């Protein structure tokens, strides 16, 4: 029988055995992180960091880039689209697989491996479209993992127990039809034949899942993206599934909050979604060019999980016209990243500046998980296009983006805010 979930005891024993189990969702932290980033993280010198993962004491970084430097910037190394460094001192690992396209997603694997998803077609010269499993010690492909997407890219990945979830723009994996979302055997890449979300976007150019998250216990999955239906049910841009069993069971939870159109041309304006560590709620980050305080464009919104029927957000954090792309939830705070200038800005607009009550939060900030209002944490960053990845670790919060100023210091597209 396949193990569907990892019990706490199993996690503990695996860690003692020297084969850390895959990390789960955002972890609970006791306090808000410092606004002063650590000095020892390496730098990505060009492009964009799209994804972060941690396996044991190794941080893996994925994106679209060609060069990295150590924390002192004295040593520069060629690293195309992926590299790794030590979680404790920032030293760059020898891990350097050759990947011919951008990496948009990473997920930790067992036995010193990491899964990578993106827009690539080859890894180390071998065909490996969109999805691969890599050995951290050598950078080699795990050739026993045989998952391949038929088209497009993989934009989000997650491991839970023996399962690997993948989402993106594909319509099949290994020849098995799966539109935008699939579950596979984490060891072999074989598609789970009983799991199919049946997502569809009638009238859209292409159905895609932009992002998803799975609760730490592996029982619920929330997906956001360019879709309008799940099976025969209407689900505009967001759907919640029970996934603890053998199938993707659509829940009775739904919202019409994302039905109103934002700026013309956005087939989806939802960019990232994360569950709270205890799975009782999730937060959605959105772009879309705000045109009305009644819409959820350019906002973050909290929704409760354990409910059924039509739902409205518990709170909405509005930037007043700037995109949010990334979210992390730790208990004391909900961290938000994008290219925003302000928080608490429902009455501000792109052209007219901040409205009454708005507070400056350039590029990164945190809000109260209960009220959604801005917290005082305000490290700042150069805004660029925006933060693309957060990763919570026991020591703090890792940030990946496309600019080189974080917390009023030079940090090339990568940094970490520590817990005090």
UniProtKB/TrEMBL annotation:
Pfam families: DUF5122 (PF17164). It comes from Actinoplanes octamycinicus. Residues 1-25 form the signal peptide. The keyword Signal applies. This is PKD domain containing protein. Coiled coil: none annotated. It comes from the Bacteria. Keywords: Signal.
